[in-house]
């Protein structure tokens, strides 16, 4: 229920031990006025600092203002503790150059090469209206009301300057980002996050998670690139497949989470092991094998996704899946090669559909009360 520090060298909400709930929003910037956008980023930063500390979004608060004016906080978090709320911001490729090629805010020359829009992957069934966005904001908390309150108030403050393009609720973290956390399970019933990057692996984080000085424009040093993918999971089809088949698709045992052929969750998978039939114990089409760094020139991603169930689809099926969230130093050596391997060969593709995609450059953390989101970019 406590508070997570808002300021720091890196933004909170990346290596912060994954909270239980998510509200993610992608905004389109609708103003053409650069100063107005910067003003909003300042207002947002102040509101985010207050809300992550468990305070109202505005200085007056939900009920202390004059009766003639709308309150500067919406009120539904009154009395709730901070619940480890983190608010993490990122800038999408279209902020730098719009789909029409226009450079609305004089930022085109500041766009990092790593923020090149993602390529199309085999099997993608993306809904454009649910994809992209000029600014992405991830709110994570251990209480859904706190996460929703945060996004709702940022949207309220942004009215007239930005508009909500899409948003996503998530429950049940599908990853652990700290060795202190137990590994949770995703909606296929498998442990997810076993071999994730973790907060304690400082050397690996430097190599694979945080943008280093010299990687690209200075304004991103200490930041990280965020890829979001809304992945529908065809759970009804999955639930009719035999346990042994589910395990060979993932490449791990469902109960323990151990690599096939082993018994401890955290043992290293042995990709050379063969079964009695002479075939590899972990098939070449298994998810955990294709996603492993050995199959992707050492690529590693910090995964921080959430389950979702958005009601049902009108065809008697749950509209359920995984809202994948992955942070990395550079998507060109992180998400892109991994997703290419998966898209080409993963046996799991029969059971999943990628319906939304987002890419955001998340700058380093704000340093204190005089700093604000995007201060080094604009
Ligand atoms: C590992 C499930 C999508 C990247 C795993 C594991 C499971 C899993 C059960 C094994 C446990 C672990 O090591 O964390 C799923 C499901 C997905 C999905 C159900 C879709 C609905 C993706 C996507 C990517 C990805 C889109 C990235 C492009 C990885 C990576 C690992 C992993 C990097 C760790 C591999 C290793 O280092 O051994 N996933 N995953 N997954 N997955 Fe996924």
Automatic annotation (TrEMBL):
Pfam families: Dyp_perox_C, Dyp_perox_N
Domain Dyp-type peroxidase C-terminal positions: 183-366
Superkingdom of this protein's organism: Bacteria
Cellular component GO terms held in the UniProt record: cell envelope; cytosol
GO molecular function annotations of the record: ferrochelatase activity; heme binding; metal ion binding; peroxidase activity
Subcellular location: Cell envelope
Keywords: Heme, Iron, Lyase, Metal-binding, Oxidoreductase, Peroxidase, Signal
Annotated Dyp-type peroxidase N-terminal domain residues: 11-171
Cofactor remark: Binds 1 heme b (iron(II)-protoporphyrin IX) group non-covalently per subunit.
Reactions mediated catalytically: heme b + 2 H(+) = protoporphyrin IX + Fe(2+)
PROSITE patterns assigned to the protein according to its UniProt record, in alphabetical order: DYP_PEROXIDASE, TAT
Membrane spanning stretches: none
Broad class of the protein's primary localization: other
PANTHER family referenced in this protein's UniProt entry, alphabetically: DEFERROCHELATASE (PTHR30521:SF4), DEFERROCHELATASE/PEROXIDASE (PTHR30521)
Family in the record: Belongs to the DyP-type peroxidase family.
The protein, known as: Deferrochelatase
Native source organism of the sequence: Actinoplanes digitatis
């Amino acid at each position: 229920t406590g508070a997570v520090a808002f300021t720091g060298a890196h933004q909170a909400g990346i290596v912060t031990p994954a909270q239980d709930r998510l509200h993610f929003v992608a905004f389109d910037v609708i103003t053409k006025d650069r100063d107005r956008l910067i003003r909003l980023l300042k207002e947002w930063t102040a509101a985010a600092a207050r809300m992550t500390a468990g305070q109202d979004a505005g200085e007056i608060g939900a009920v202390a203002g004059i009766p003639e004016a709308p309150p500067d906080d919406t009120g539904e978090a009154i009395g709730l503790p901070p619940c480890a709320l983190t608010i993490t911001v990122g800038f999408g490729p279209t902020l730098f150059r719009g789909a029409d090629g226009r450079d609305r805010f004089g930022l085109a020359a500041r766009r990092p090469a790593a923020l090149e829009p993602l390529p199309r992957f085999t099997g993608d069934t993306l809904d454009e209206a649910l994809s992209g966005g000029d600014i992405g904001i991830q709110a994570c908390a251990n209480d859904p009301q706190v996460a929703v309150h945060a996004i709702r108030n940022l949207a309220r403050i942004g009215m007239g300057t930005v508009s909500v393009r899409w948003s996503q609720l998530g429950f049940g973290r599908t990853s652990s980002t700290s060795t202190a956390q137990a590994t949770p399970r995703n909606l296929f019933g498998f442990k997810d996050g076993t071999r994730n990057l973790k907060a304690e692996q400082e050397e690996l984080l430097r190599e694979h998670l945080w943008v280093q000085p010299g990687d690209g424009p200075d304004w991103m040093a200490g930041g990280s690139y965020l890829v979001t993918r809304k992945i529908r999971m065809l759970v009804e089809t999955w639930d009719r497949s035999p346990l042994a088949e589910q395990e060979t698709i993932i490449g791990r045992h469902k109960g323990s989470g151990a690599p096939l052929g082993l018994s401890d969750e955290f043992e290293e998978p042995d990709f050379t092991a063969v079964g009695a039939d002479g075939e590899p114990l972990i098939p070449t089409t298994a998810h955990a094998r294709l996603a492993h760094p050995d199959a992707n020139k050492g690529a590693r991603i910090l995964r921080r996704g959430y389950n979702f169930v958005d009601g049902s689809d009108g065809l008697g099926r749950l509209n359920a899946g995984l809202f994948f969230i992955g942070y990395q130093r550079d998507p060109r050596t992180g998400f892109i090669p991994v997703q290419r391997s998966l898209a080409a060969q993963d046996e799991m593709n029969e059971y999943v559909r990628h319906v939304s995609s987002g890419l955001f450059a998340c700058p380093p953390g704000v340093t204190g009360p005089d700093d604000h989101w995007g201060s080094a970019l604009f």
